Amino acid sequence: DxxxxxxxxxxxxxxxxxxxxxxxxxxxVAARRAPGRRPVLAVDGKTLRGARTGATAAPxxxxxxxxxxxxxxxQIAVDGKTNEITMFAGLLDQIPDLDGTVITADALHAQxxxxxxLHKRGAHYIFTVKGNQPGLxxxxxxxxxxxxxxxHSQTGRAHGRxxxxxxxxxxxxxxxxxxxxxxxxxxxxxxxxxxxxxWRTETSYAITSLPSAQARPAQLAEWIRGHWKxxxxxxxxxxxxxxxxxxxxxxxxxxxxxxxxRNLVISILRLAGHTSIARALRHTARNPERAFRLLTATGxxx
Length: 302
Known about the structure:
With about 300 residues, this protein is of the alpha+beta class. About 40% of the residues lie in helices and about 25% in strands. The longest helix has 19 residues, at about 15-30.
């Protein structure tokens, strides 16, 4: 019955479960990757807000998501006495082969230790840079961007807005105060409401260890924009579609275990080609045999 299932689940070591599920998903992702296509993983954390109690803080989990499939390849708990920064290497240690992989992360992870770790693993980084690295941020802002031609421009419409994005990249193999930095990146976003006339401009900066021969501005723009899949196609889905923050599971390892299972469900459906998790869940629920076929097909790498 459900009580027995729950007792079994909460008896499982959540760290071991994350590693087993992550290894399975990572193998499936690798089997689907087109030959010659570079792996790209987004790293970001999420707090399980619904699991907060009067006596304990809400658990926080750090995960990495494959850009190409939006499947979750690894997850690790962030202890309440530390933060995401100290768990970055532990998370990526779960991925056995990072050679040639690009890791995208927000400004929190623009850390020299992270750059060194990735270099030792044969991986590359694209880190957003903000005020938490003031010296580096000043260096990036001071570069002669007006003299650098736009490398990539794109206009799109979404959520009732028009957005124009311009990306510039410049080689900075010397003089930038960050390990293994090869290019500095400037992103200018201009947005306005479709029925409005006033434009809002936002300028941000990033750095990457990829040289220009391996990552042109258009490719960098794709990866930088793709990083937000971890918010839109994982965290948002867990909250809104799967009701994570409304969950009544609040004690022990239960919240972590359930987050790992949600990651697995999302990953299986993404690997099967589903773009709407809600629609895929409804379709699968109508006939239990569909779930078995889905697992079999995913397991065979089809």
